[in-house]
Amino acid sequence: MSDDILKPGPRNLITDVTGVSVGNATDEKVQTGVTVLRCAHAFIAAADVRGGAPGTREIDVLSSENLVGRADAIVLTGGSVFGLAAADGAASALSVDGVGLKLSDKGPAIPIVPAAVLHDLGNDGDKQWGETPPYRVLGMKAARNAGAEFELGSEGAGRGAMAGVIKGGLGSASLVLENGVTVGALVAANPVGSVYMADGETFHAWPYEIRGEFGGKSPPTLHELPEPFPDFSRLHFRAKAGANTTIAIVATNADLTNVEAKRIAMMAHDGIARAVRPAHTAFDGDIVFAIATAEKELPFDPEPLRHGLVVRIGAAASDCLTRAIARAIYEARD
């Protein structure tokens, strides 16, 4: 591999972006889990929702017209509506650590913890939890487990995920750009669409693979357009609104504004469309968060140069998300 080709960071994880840590908590009995991305301090953040059936918390607080525009952590979780409690648990754990807004000497720290959920309630796990779903406790555990290294596949928010009719999972990938900017992606992949081409072995993401990170399989022929509703999707028989989604976070160490972070989140959605066919359906709740740690300064003058660098980061984020989705399925287990 020549030196002019972009390479992943040392871990090939979103934690190659300095200041980002990730923790998982998995409940094998319920076959579900939670993944928490923690920020070293309140990082600039934005979100873009493209799916037709999203489940979210604290998305509006990230909008550029509103006051905060930052996040202390972001939660990806299974459990559908019950999973939103994972953000409560993560927020409690962070507050005890003194993380968050301090609006009064008498009150606790108030962490900003946006969240997105996927639907994994239809698997064989025990969902008879009565009035005590496990997600708040899982959110606390995941926040406290956060570190530079974490497991992919059937862990955390990926434990109960499905990708079409096959096992979904948790994935991550990174890239280091020529100017030293690092970009990474983290995803819990649970789409209604298929990640595989018609042979059932080749990922749609195969052109973006680096160093055999998801098996090194390329298609036998390149001259046929794949079926738009592949056999490996759930569109033929089990598609239900709200039952599927791809929830993701992209991160960079560049000093983006809130508006620029929003643009990165929007561009990163293309990474889902490359890896999943079809994507952004009415049955999915696809959402991408974007965070910027501001470690690497981008020039504001001349303005066209800055805009070009932001576009470059968005393109890299999209590529990382494509690879992360394929890694999620490749690393998953039954």
TrEMBL record:
**Protein family according to the UniProt entry:** Belongs to the peptidase S58 family.
This chain belongs to which protein, by name?
P1 family peptidase
SUPFAM superfamilies according to UniProt: DmpA/ArgJ-like
Q: Which organism is it from?
A: Hyphococcus aureus
| Protein origin, superkingdom | Bacteria
Any matching Pfam family: Peptidase_S58
Q: Tell me which positions the record assigns to the signal sequence.
A: none
What InterPro entries does the annotation carry?
ArgJ-like_dom_sf (IPR016117), Peptidase_S58_DmpA (IPR005321)
